[in-house]
Amino acid sequence: MTNPALKKNHWTSRVNECSVGKDARGDLNVSLRGGAENGEFAYIGQINEDLVIYRDGKLNEGELLLEVENLSISGLPLYDVQTLIKNCKSPVKLKSVRPVFCVSTGKKRFQGANYGSTRGPGKYLACLREP
């Protein structure tokens, strides 16, 4: 049995789907920040609203980027995400979500936490701390 209140407030109910066209140079005119090399998830930086070509939906600054062309980009370094977008045909389909209090752009807080090694989430998060 599912709780309707939980479903309504779950972050997956707030996923934003957007299609953005490329300009003549092949740019989206959307700045990306973060990336695994910085210990963060990729997220939307500054948006030049005058130059962005929206086909469907709209992006907002600060949203976490989840997918590019239905490919999950979680854990990818920023240069891989940018290369993926560069190689996509226009318009590029993006999925993003606005971060809430329990979702952060930074992974370091969760990786560095001491959860113990034998019970709870510690045994699952240990693999994140390994090189």
Please name the defining characteristics of this protein.
PDZ; PDZ_sf; PDZ domain-containing protein; 25% strand
Verbal overview:
- With 131 residues, this protein is of the alpha+beta class.
- It is built from four helices and seven strands.
- It has helices at 4-9, 78-87, 108-111, 122-129, and strands at residues 15-21, 30-33, 43-47, 53-56, 64-68, 71-72, 92-97.
- Strands 4-1-7-5-6 form a five-stranded antiparallel β-sheet, with helices on one face.
- Residues 17-100 form the PDZ domain.
Topology:
Elements: H1 4-9, E1 15-21, E2 30-33, E3 43-47, E4 53-56, E5 64-68, E6 71-72, H2 78-87, E7 92-97, H3 108-111, H4 122-129
Antiparallel strand pairs: 1-4, 1-7, 2-3, 5-6, 5-7
* Estimated share of beta-strand residues: 25-35%
Number of helices: 4
- The neighbouring-strand order within the major sheet is 4-1-7-5-6
Low-pLDDT sequence parts = none
The end-to-end span amounts to 40 Å
Topology, number of strands: 7
What oligomeric state best describes the polypeptide chains here? single chain
Class based on secondary structure composition and strand pairing: alpha+beta
Roughly what is the average pLDDT, rounded to an integer?
79
Q: How many strands, which pairing sense, and closed or not: the largest β-sheet?
A: 5 strands, antiparallel
Overall helicity: 10-25%
What overall form do the CA principal axes indicate?
globular
Spell out the helices and strands N to C: HEEEEEEHEHH
Radius of gyration: 17 Å
